[in-house]
UniProtKB/TrEMBL annotation:
GO cellular component terms, A-Z: cytoplasm; membrane
Pfam families on file: ELMO_ARM, ELMO_CED12, PH_12
Subcellular locations according to the entry: Cytoplasm; Membrane
InterPro entries in alphabetical order: ARM-like, ARM-type_fold, ELMO_ARM, ELMO_dom, ELMO_domain-containing, PH-like_dom_sf, PH_domain
Protein task: Involved in cytoskeletal rearrangements required for phagocytosis of apoptotic cells and cell motility. Acts in association with DOCK1 and CRK. Was initially proposed to be required in complex with DOCK1 to activate Rac Rho small GTPases. May enhance the guanine nucleotide exchange factor (GEF) activity of DOCK1.
GO molecular function: SH3 domain binding
Assigned keywords, A-Z: Apoptosis, Cytoplasm, Membrane, Phagocytosis, Phosphoprotein, SH3-binding
Designated name of the protein: Engulfment and cell motility 2
Coiled coil: none
PROSITE patterns: ELMO
GO biological process: actin filament organization; apoptotic process; cell motility; phagocytosis
Keyword field contains Transmembrane helix: no
Amino acid sequence: MPPPADIVKVAIEWPGANAQLIEMDQKRPLSSIIREVCDGWSLSGSEQFALRYADGPQLYITEQSRGDIKNGTILRLAISPARAARQLLERIQSHGIDARLEALKELAKLSADPTFATEFINMEGIGTLARLVESGTHFGEMLAFTLTAFLELMDHGIVSWDLISLSFIKQIAGYVNQPMVDVSILQRSLAILESMVLNSHSLYHRVAQEITVGQLIGHLQVSNQEIQTYAIALINALFLKAPEDRRQEMASTLAQKHLRSIILNHVIRGNRPIKAEMAHQLYVLQVLTFNLLEERMMTKMDPNDQAQRDIIFELRRIAFDGENDPTGTEKRKAMYTKDYKMLGFTNHVNPAMDFTQTPPGMLALDNMLYLAKVHQDTYIRIVLENSSREDKHECPFGRCAIELTRMLCEILQVGELPNEGCNDYHPMFFTHDRAWEEFFCVCIQLLNKTWKEMRATAEDFNKVMQVVREQITRALAMKPSSLDQLKNKLRGLNYSEILRLRQSERMSQDDFQSPPIIELRERIQPEILELIKQQRLNRLCEGSCFRKLGNRRRQEKFWFCRLSLNHKVLHYGDLDESPQGEVPFELLSDKTNNCFITHDETFTIPVSDIKSVVTGKDCPHMKEKSALKQNKEVLELAFSVLYDPDETLNFVAPNKYEYCIWTDGLCALLGREMGSDLTRSDLDTLISMEMKLRLLDLENITIPEAPPPVPKEPSSYNFTYNYS
């Protein structure tokens, strides 16, 4: 007979004594269980003790988290959080250096525990640590442990960052600005300043006054990638929180300090491979840099603004420089209209009207002017080449440039905030000070080339733009390291190659529309769906690692979830680090202290208890987390398992592939349809392969629309076969 669900068998340790093996009744108050354990070792004052996990982070067990304890867990009797906080607070204020160092070391470890952190903060512990830092008397390990504890305590969000004093900020900024400082102190100082900027508007201004961009750029020239990552993260935080009117000024300062070239030479082209967090910070910097274009992208052209009209006149002058303007007003107006038509503007009389739509607004005109001035020969060649073609085959430069600018803004997501889980940076954008403009110049030449290859007319404009978008996105997916490499990639992706790729990636509809083929497809489909279902369930049995989204990405915590081999139970638990390969059940800890996992659930969830699976904005953690709700990518990767009695297990998948695998697998477990994009793609691919294999012997044979007629019955059945 299995033990009751409320009883868990655990071992409890105490230094210098034999461990107690007890059956813990989860319905009993925790204080009663602790009193019983203390009595077993003849310890008085049970209210001064608490239970902690013996392994992993060794978190304290509370009434809220005790439900995570599973059979076989090893616990440890320890002094209570309040008592531990009081003792450590006294020890870090003692005069003995060795005692203070040990106390700070222990405090740095315990500060990650929310129960202990609450007690320590209630005793004004953060103020004590801040004063120790402000005194300037701590150095080396002692200072590093102090800063670590301070950062861990603040990250719990119990107290506001606005309470930090100016003298503390100056001291932390001093460590960052010092030419020679211990690496661990520098890391923690940069992390503290980043948290200040991100969590407090008032502290942003104070930090911005104390930290110079030059000092931060200096930290990018070291060989330690961790320091480089923290430095770029702080630059990004200052950039993100800067007022709109100061961002352009800050960008100019960074350009003067050669930030781009330093990142290119010391980070991207450094000796070490780019880690995930560094890739994320480079992506954030790329997004914030491109977002500087948003103002011009959303600015309409004023047809009455002479300065803006002069830019269009300049485009005309550069293209048709050798032609003298006629003297008469009417003749001049007629000539301008003709020239604007040759330039490819939609409105030949007043081309300023072409730039009144946002996006791309004035950004398109900026791109055109850059091409005309910096790559003048290319600009003139494109304009004159098209003006000499037949009218029906000319490529309208103005219209193409405007639409291309809009397309590039969509591809690079200009104006959107960085996504939390994205590492999609492009090295080539760090190879040129005017990377956006140069990217446009490469793409407008591609568009002109593709137009000629397609022998397009004005009616084919949208088709050409679709092909160009596909060429650009495919080339970007290859991650070219320079603009020259981008040109080579695009050269290989000509119109013929795009047609070939499209043909190889999709099933030819013409060959699969006859009734016999459709019937064969319908017969094959259930087999393929079952195959996909088994693959999804097998993948769930292997399990996946999910990242806990906390305040600091660089101190990531992970948890793991997998399906049992008999498909009856979901197992989940915390991990100390991201796993490499499969994770055994016994390595999953049960200390799932995570904002995405409720505290009242057990370590295993029977599949029979699962009621439904919800995704996106319907997930409980997306409704609770307003910051995450605003992040489009996180919202698209979120899903939750709702199970009896009214509990949830909440996920944020690391990528779209894992999201589809898990939502499909969970739906398959519940007997529901697998409706993800990945399932549709896999279904099309596998059915196409199976159909082609089965029809291989019928190549070049016409398949009739209807089955052959059944012959008439014979007049007599009096016939035999002679086998002799």
